[in-house]
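ok, trying the design again with the full structure, not the truncated one.
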């Protein structure tokens, strides 16, 4: 028989018992919808986890420190008995590790400081965070400049993404002396909406900062508001004099807590400038050896984090990263996806039983027809292909319809989760977005896999009945009166 004749016979046989064929296809539709929707919800959970991990910042960052860390072990440099030191030599050794793209000390400023800007120091921020890093490693460490450039000389600094919003207007009333940053949510009886934010009092890249600090400086709390000025505290007996140093912001960094709180709201300066500032208010610190409390190491790829961490620990240092948390979240996500996929697979099993039952009944009803085909010289393989084709067609139609229905249901779930139908939600429910988290996510490969799997289930379910058909003796089949 020609292949076209086999296809024509398949179509005729399927439409011969329309009700039974439709009910069998419906069973495949239910099974396909179940497994696609279950897997899509698992994909939605995975997308939510990815958004959560992205909100934590750069996950390829490893924080290195000495002693007293979460690992609980003592720090020893290569088993020599001497404690490992986080100094410039250690930083260079980290940069030489395969898979490391950059490393920088992250030196915190351990004294209280306030910053002022504008004529007469009108704008002020108390207890501003100050951090020192190797500013030549900005690109290697993945620091993102939202505006401006990197510092090129002493006195030039970077500011965090929201640093300008931390300043208050000392000459304005309490109701008007602050600016709200964008991204905050304001809720009322009509629901919650994202605040577009106010403009800061000044452009940080067009204004110089005066940083005031000292050993016993209280952050400017001794000053008063509304035009009274900010005075320096005398501190305890023997305290160093309060110092005021002027800095010029030349760039704005994108906030990332994994790279230091100051990237969100603070001042980031070079290590040399931080050492000079510290020495100015505490000269004795200039005589101390240069060691760091912690060093940030960035890997070239997220998959390099475990290996790089292991090598750093082998040097005698303690480390911390989000690698364990990331792995735990991924394992939980895979477990949920397997559980949901298993629930959908049960429906597919029921559909497979339905296909097998339909094909068995079809063979029983067409026994005489099978005998006549054999008597006329039809090849056994053609009879097998005919029955397998019918079973596969049931799976194909059920899979296609099931995918269409699954896509519509998934779309509706996402629209409801996003707050109801709107032009933006109708589109984001399908393709998602940078700030959009969907409940149900159906990637293109899931549709393709569902259709192919439906066909495979149909062919497997029809294999037994097809073999039964080809084993029927021709004479016995012709004598069959049914």
């Amino acid at each position: 028989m020609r292949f076209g004749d086999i296809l024509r016979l398949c179509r005729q046989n399927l439409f011969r018992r329309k009700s039974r064929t439709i009910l069998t296809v419906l069973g495949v539709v239910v099974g396909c919808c179940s497994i696609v929707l279950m897997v899509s919800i698992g994909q939605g959970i995975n997308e939510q986890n990815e958004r959560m991990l992205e909100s934590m910042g750069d996950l390829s960052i490893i924080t290195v420190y000495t002693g007293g860390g979460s690992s609980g072990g003592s720090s020893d440099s290569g088993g020599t008995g001497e404690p490992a030191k986080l100094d410039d030599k250690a930083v260079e050794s980290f940069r030489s590790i395969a898979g490391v793209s950059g490393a920088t000390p992250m030196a915190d400023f351990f004294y209280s400081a306030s910053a002022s800007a504008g004529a007469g120091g009108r704008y002020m921020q108390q207890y501003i965070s100050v951090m020192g890093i190797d500013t030549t490693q900005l690109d290697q460490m993945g620091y993102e400049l939202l505006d401006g450039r990197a510092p090129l000389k002493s006195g030039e600094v970077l500011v965090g993404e929201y640093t300008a919003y931390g300043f208050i207007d000392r000459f304005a009333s309490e109701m008007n002396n602050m600016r709200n940053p964008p991204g905050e949510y304001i809720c009322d009886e009509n629901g919650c909406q994202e605040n577009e934010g106010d403009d800061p009092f000044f452009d940080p890249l067009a204004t110089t900062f005066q940083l005031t600090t000292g050993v016993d400086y209280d952050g400017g709390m001794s000053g008063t508001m509304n035009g009274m000025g900010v005075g320096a505290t005398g501190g305890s007996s023997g305290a160093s004099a309060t110092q005021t140093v002027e800095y010029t912001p030349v760039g704005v960094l994108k906030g990332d807590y994994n790279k230091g709180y100051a990237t969100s709201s603070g001042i980031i300066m070079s290590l040399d400038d931080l050492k000079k500032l510290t020495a100015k208010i505490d000269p004795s610190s200039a005589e101390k050896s240069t060691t760091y409390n912690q060093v940030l190491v960035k890997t070239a790829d997220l998959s390099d984090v475990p290996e790089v961490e292991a090598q750093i620990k082998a040097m005698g240092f303690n480390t911390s990263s989000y690698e364990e948390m990331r792995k735990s979240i991924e394992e939980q996500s895979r477990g949920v996806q397997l559980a949901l996929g298993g629930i959908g697979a049960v429906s597919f099993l029921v559909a497979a039983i339905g296909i097998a039952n339909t094909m068995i009944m079809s063979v029983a009803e067409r026994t005489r027809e099978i005998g006549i085909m054999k008597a006329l010289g039809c090849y056994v393989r053609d009879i097998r292909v005919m029955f397998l084709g019918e079973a596969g067609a049931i799976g194909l139609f059920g899979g296609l319809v099931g995918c269409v229905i699954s896509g519509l249901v998934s779309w509706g779930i996402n629209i409801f989760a996003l707050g109801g139908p709107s032009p933006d939600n109708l589109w984001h429910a399908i393709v998602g977005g940078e700030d959009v988290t969907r409940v149900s996510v159906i990637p293109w490969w899931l549709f393709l896999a569902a259709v192919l799997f439906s066909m495979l289930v149909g062919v497997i379910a029809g294999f037994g009945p097809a073999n039964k058909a080809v084993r029927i003796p021709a004479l016995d089949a012709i004598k069959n009166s049914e």
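Keeping the full-length input from now on. The radius of gyration is 35 Å.
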